[in-house]
Write a structure and sequence with these properties.
Blueprint lengths: L26 H18 L2 E4 L2 E4 H13 L3 H22 L9 H6 L3 H19 L4 H4 L4 H22 L1 H4 L3 H17 L5 H10 L2 H13 L5 H10 L5 H10 L6 H18 L31 H14 L4 H36 L2 H6 L2 H7 L5 H10 L6 H6 L5 H14 L3 H10 L6 H27 L1
Antiparallel strand pairs: 1-2
C-alpha cells in the first residue's frame, strides 16, 4: 500500500562520526547548534504554567491560534475535509499520469484506495455533523461532535505549529547531542538509539502525534531501522502530560496525580523494556528506510570524552541545516499532507469507534471474557470496567469517558493509568502509524495493543493496591 505521509524527500546528508582526532568545535559552530536547539527545547520540551495549568510553549501557541479562530475552527476542519476529498476525487478523474510524479499535488492527492475511501467517508461524516443531517448517532455530541469539534479542531493547529517549529528540534544537532549522551542507556534498556530519547520527551511534553512525526522523519532520513522505528512509535508515543492530567480529571483521580503519573511512567518503562524483545516487534528487520543513505548511530570509540563526541556531532549536523526559508517551505508541504490525510481519517475512524461504543453492545460482548480477570485482580465493578480496558484502541479518550461513571476510585485509577499506557488508539495515532513509511500494519497495532494491556494491567493493579490505596 502506498503511503501519503509527509517526509523529507531529500533526506539528510551523511554526518561523519569519526571524532577521534577532531578538535573541539569553535564558538560560532556551537552557537549555530545551541541557539536553534535551545529554541526547540523551549518550544517542545519545557513545561510552562499558564493560568494555573501546566503546558508547553508549542501547546500554548497552538491553543492561542485555535482560540483566535474561535467558533470558526470547525469550519476550518470542514474546509480541509472538502479540499482533501474533492482534490483526491479530481486527481482520480483526470488520471494519475496527468499529475507530475513527485509534485506536491501528487503527494497530497494521489493516494491508495483505502485512503480515498477514508477521505470521502470523512467528508460525509463531517458534513452530517456540521449540518446535523441524517441519524443522530452520526452527529451527536458524543460521536461526530466529539471527533470534529473536540479532537479535529485541536489536531489542525497542533500540526501546523509543530510542523513549522519541529526543525529546531531535529535539524540543528539536538538529536545528535542527546543521542550520543543517551545511547548507552537506551541501547541497554530498550535496544534503541539514544536519539530516540528526544521522541519520548517530545511525546511526554508535547503530544503523541508529534513524537510519531519525529520518528517518521528520523526513519525516512536513515537514522532508525524499521525495527527501531516500529518500537519507538509503539512504545514511546506517550500522551502528553497535560492530556494525562485531563484523563485523570475525567476519571476523578486528579487529586492523586503524582501517584497517577508515577504509575504511568513505571508501567511505560517496564513495558518498553519488554516489548522490543518479543514478537511482533522483535521480528521487524533491522534495515534502514534508504539503505544507500543510512545515518546510523555508532558506538563511542572511547578515545574522546562523550561530551566532546556529542558536541562535535551536533555542530556538524547544524552546519548542514537548510536555510529557514527552505525548511518552512518543506514543512508547509508536510503540514498540508498531514491535514489532508489524517483529519478525514480521524473523523471517519474516530466517529465510527464512538458510535460502536455509544450505540451498540459490541464492546460489552467483546470484553465479557475480561471480567473474570479483573475480578481476579480484586478490581471493584469489573463488569463496568471491562469495556474501558479495550475502548482505547478506538479512541484515546474513550476509556476515560466510559470509566468516569464508575463509583470505585481504585477502578477509575486503574482505568486512567491503563488507558494512557496502552498508546495505540486508531482515531489518531493508529491511523498515522499505518499511513506512514514505517512498516506497521493494522494487525501489528492490534497485537501490540493487546500485549501492552496484558503486560501493563498487572503492574498498574499492583501499584494501585499496594502503593496508592
Amino acid at each position: 500500500m502506498s503511503s501519503d505521509t509527509p517526509h523529507d524527500l531529500g533526506g539528510e546528508p551523511e554526518i561523519v562520526t569519526d571524532t577521534g582526532n577532531a578538535s573541539f568545535p569553535d564558538g560560532a559552530s556551537i552557537r549555530r547548534f545551541a541557539l536553534p536547539s535551545l529554541l526547540g527545547v523551549l518550544t517542545f520540551l519545557t513545561p510552562v504554567k499558564v493560568d494555573g495549568n501546566w503546558t508547553i510553549l508549542m501547546g500554548l501557541i497552538s491553543d492561542t491560534g485555535r482560540d483566535a479562530v474561535g467558533a470558526g475552527m470547525p469550519w476550518v476542519v470542514f474546509a480541509l475535509l472538502c479540499i482533501s476529498a474533492t482534490g483526491t476525487l479530481y486527481a482520480i478523474s483526470i488520471g494519475r499520469k496527468r499529475i507530475p510524479a513527485g509534485s506536491l499535488a501528487a503527494r497530497l492527492f494521489i493516494v491508495a484506495p483505502v485512503w480515498v475511501a477514508l477521505r470521502v467517508i470523512g467528508l460525509i461524516m463531517g458534513t452530517m455533523t456540521m449540518f446535523q443531517l441524517g441519524p443522530e448517532m452520526f452527529w451527536s455530541p458524543a460521536t461526530g461532535g466529539t471527533v470534529l469539534r473536540d479532537l479535529a479542531v485541536n489536531i489542525v493547529p497542533i500540526f501546523l505549529f509543530a510542523g513549522l517549529l519541529m526543525p529546531f528540534l531535529t535539524d540543528y544537532g539536538l538529536m545528535e547531542f542527546v543521542g550520543t549522551m543517551m545511547k548507552r542507556i537506551f541501547r541497554r534498556l530498550f535496544t534503541l538509539p539514544g536519539r530516540s530519547a528526544i521522541d519520548a520527551l517530545a511525546s511526554w511534553m508535547s503530544s503523541a502525534p508529534v513524537g510519531v512525526l519525529i520518528t517518521i522523519q528520523q526513519y525516512v532520513s536513515g537514522h532508525y531501522t524499521a525495527r527501531e522505528a516500529a518500537v519507538i512509535a509503539t512504545n514511546f508515543s506517550v500522551v502528553s502530560v497535560p492530556f494525562a492530567l485531563l484523563v485523570a480529571k475525567t476519571v476523578g483521580v486528579d487529586d492523586r496525580f503524582p501517584e497517577y503519573y508515577m504509575a504511568v511512567v513505571i508501567t511505560g518503562v517496564i513495558t518498553a523494556m519488554i516489548m522490543p524483545r518479543i514478537p511482533p516487534l522483535s521480528r521487524f528487520e533491522d534495515e534502514p528506510f534508504d539503505r544507500l543513505h543510512a545515518l546510523r548511530e555508532e558506538e563511542s570509540s572511547g578515545d574522546v570524552p562523550l561530551i566532546h563526541e556529542a558536541v562535535t556531532l551536533a555542530t556538524k549536523r547544524a552546519a548542514l541545516a537548510m536555510p529557514l526559508s527552505v525548511q518552512f517551505r518543506v514543512a508547509f508541504g508536510h503540514i498540508l499532507d498531514i491535514w489532508f490525510g489524517l483529519v478525514p481519517a480521524v473523523i471517519a475512524v474516530g466517529g465510527a469507534g464512538l458510535m460502536i461504543a455509544e450505540y451498540t453492545p459490541i464492546l460489552g460482548w467483546l470484553t465479557a471474557p475480561i471480567v473474570p480477570v479483573l475480578e481476579l485482580f480484586r478490581l471493584p465493578e469489573a463488569a463496568a470496567a471491562a469495556p474501558a480496558m479495550v475502548a482505547g484502541f478506538l479512541d484515546m479518550f474513550l476509556p476515560a469517558l466510559l470509566g468516569a461513571g464508575i463509583e470505585s476510585e481504585l477502578t477509575r485509577f486503574v482505568i486512567g493509568v491503563v488507558s494512557v499506557t496502552q498508546l495505540i488508539y486508531m482515531s489518531e495515532i493508529g491511523i498515522l502509524m499505518i499511513k506512514c513509511e514505517i512498516p506497521l500494519k493494522f494487525w501489528h497495532l492490534l497485537v501490540v495493543f493487546v500485549m501492552r494491556t496484558v503486560i501493563g494491567l498487572p503492574i498498574v493493579v499492583a501499584f494501585a493496591h499496594w502503593i496508592v490505596f
